[in-house]
Amino acid sequence: MNSVEVSAKTVEEAVAEGLKSLGVKKDNVNIEVLSEPSQGILKLLGSNKPAKVRLIVRRESEEYIMDFLQDLVERMGVRGEIVKQNARENSDSGLINLEVVGENLGVLIGKRGNTLNAIQYLANVVYQRQFQLERGRVLIDIENYRLKRKKTLEHLAKSLASKVKRTGQEVILEPMTPQERRIIHIVLKDSKDVVTYSQGDEPHRKIVIAPR
Amino acid sequence: MQVKELVEHLAKALVDHPEQVEVREIEDERAIVLELRVAVEDMGKVIGKQGRIAKAIRTVVNAAALKENKRVLVEIVE
């Protein structure tokens, strides 16, 4: 659905109703007032005409969030381009996989992916708010950082698991994002020697690897 | 300076009243202070639960400010 026409007592009411039915925020639509409300001079005659507006969705959500990120990257003083990645197999259809391509993009990644995670978090909050969605669904990668990080975490998980087995003592990892914690849980889920669980509250939630 | 526009860009996308977003830049030799003002009802939208959104804004701004060789402080003011 890309546009709606709504009638109400006032223009504001009609716009609010239209936004609700489209499920988008005001910034994302063009508003056309088709008719202003008018009250007959003689109210008694009941000749009140309602306000009528048309709302047209300006940009689709994917395009919106790509533009948002493109502007963000430029304002961070980085030359990079936001491109869409092909959806991976078995991936959620609502997921938007984006990648930043360019040179010297390290500043966008930061220490242990801190900056990249902050950018992705903000992109998801903005995406949810602008389109009134319940969950954010934007994933951003830069120069295969996520893939490399995944390998690093898998390696770390395995070596810590053998340490836990050897010493019989549990190990608490540094705080990680849900995505990163998931990688560790998965790689150790069939281990005969250790169990994994998370403790603490976001964004300080940490994984514990404990002897089974 | 670009970091001011960066904060504006982020704040405007986060709030309900982008037209009321205002960023003031106060600069001295060592640091730049960016004072972010938003509509009262939008305060929570730029701060977030336990300050999570504000923290993410600061992380992004600090990354952008690295090459400026200056500390950039983002303050959300009423």
Taking the alpha carbons of the first and last residues of chain B, their distance comes to 23 Å
SSE series of chain B: HEEHHE
Shape of chain A: elongated
Question: For the report, how would you describe the main beta sheet of chain B?
Answer: 3 strands, mixed
Strands of the largest sheet of chain A, in order across it? 1-3-2
The percentage of residues in β strands of chain A lies in 15-25%
The oligomeric state of the chains shown is heterodimer
- Spatial extent as radius of gyration of chain B: 12 Å
Distance between the termini of chain A: 53 Å
Characterize the main sheet of chain A.
3 strands, antiparallel
Mean pLDDT of chain B: 92
Work out the helix count of chain B.
3
Task: Lay out the secondary structure.
The complex is a heterodimer of chains A (212) and B (78).
Chain A (H helix, E strand, L loop, with lengths): L2 E6 L2 H12 L6 E7 L15 E7 L3 H15 L4 E5 L11 E7 L3 H4 L4 H18 L6 E5 L2 H23 L3 E2 L5 H11 L5 E6 L6 E6 L1
Parallel strand pairs in A: 5-6
Antiparallel strand pairs in A: 1-3, 2-3, 4-5, 7-9, 8-9
Chain B lengths: L1 H13 L7 E6 L3 E7 L5 H5 L4 H14 L5 E7 L1
Parallel strand pairs in B: 2-3
Antiparallel strand pairs in B: 1-2
Helix pairs in contact in B: 1-3
Task: Describe the fold and architecture.
The complex is a heterodimer of chains A (212) and B (78). Chain A is of the alpha+beta class. Chain A has six helices and nine strands. In chain A, helix 2 (61-75) packs antiparallel against helix 4 (114-131) and helix 5 (145-167) crosses helix 6. In chain A, 25% of the residues are buried. The model of chain A has no long low-confidence stretch (mean pLDDT 87). Chain B is of the alpha+beta class and 78 residues long. Helix content of chain B is 41%, strand content 26%. In chain B, strands 1-2-3 form a three-stranded mixed β-sheet. In chain B, a hairpin with a 3-residue loop joins strand 1 (22-27) and strand 2. The two termini of chain B are 23 Å apart. The A-B interface holds A 25, 27, 68, 71-72, 75-77, 107-108, 110, 114-115, 118-119, 121-122, 125-126, 129-130, 201-203 and B 2-3, 5-6, 9-10, 13-14, 16, 18, 45, 48, 50, 52-53, 55-57, 59-60, 63-64, 66-67.
